[in-house]
Amino acid sequence: MKAVVQNRYGDTGVLALREIPEPEPGEREVLVRVAAAGLDAGVWHLMTGLPLLLRLMGYGLRAPRIAVRGREAAGRVVATGPGVTRFKAGDEVFGYCESAFAEYAAVPEDRLLPRPAGLTAEQAAALPISAVTALQAVRDRGRVAAGMRVLVIGAGGGVGTYAVQLAVATGARVTGVCSTGKTEQVRSLGAETVLDYTAEDITARPERYDLIVDTGGSRPLRGLRRMLAPGGTLVIVGGETAGRLLGGTDRVLRAALLSPFTRHRLLGLMASERTEDLAYVTGLAERGELTPVLSGVHPLAEVPELIDRFRAGALCGKAIVVP
């Protein structure tokens, strides 16, 4: 089968489209014929092995433990391993899926859900990582409520487009921050105000917010706190600073240390891949209350270029890869 693989850490030059053996499903695993896979920030981190802290978390010290990239997918079950009870061959499924940038993937059955008939494979593949991360940032950590003033930084990205919609759905007054080319898309998601960070310093504005969701940004904590209302909450989702050891997690650590001594709640989020949360956002999508924003659909051969565009902030919403 064809798959996007790597045998060492590095930039997109380490990725190659190769023919490798088709995996066999193990205990309580199903073999899925991948129809669509999503691209998220974790793909870049696992490709580069950065921050270095990531390698100590079991992903491989000198080289990736899992050679095939991709973390979420939708497809059809073609075979089942021993002990599988939830799915059978022919079932349409989606969910968390390591090695998703391939024609086939072996996936634990408890990481998958049945794909609703009302969602395409491309839409379903865009939900597991980014929509669940947004839900945990806005609902669980941010405790969003009707009437709150919410600022979403990175509102045009994979997590940000969902965060805007989830906050709007609760009745919050949402301001989105994005680059020039994404402003109309963010406005169409329900944001009352859209700020172009390329045209102004958003931290210098007089507005104050009850909740700020910073999706993969690198702004200093001091500037973010300046935009918070008294008692407001900052949720840092990931982080993309250049530090090789800690990367963006240094802001999360500093926020945790500072939070007890301020009038603000300063929180980081390491999203949990929970199927119950995936089921929740999927229900919203089925009812038309949450719309996956797709930047495009691309073949496996374009994955390296796609990751570079993702890192440059050139994609609006979620990029989808199809074998």
TrEMBL record:
GO molecular function: oxidoreductase activity
UniProt cross-references to InterPro entries, sorted A to Z: ADH-like_N, ER, GroES-like_sf, NAD(P)-bd_dom_sf, YIM1/Zinc_Alcohol_DH_Fams
Residue ranges of every copy of the Enoyl reductase (ER) domain listed in the record: 10-321
Protein name as catalogued: NAD(P)-dependent alcohol dehydrogenase
Organism of derivation: Streptomyces tsukubensis (strain DSM 42081 / NBRC 108919 / NRRL 18488 / 9993)
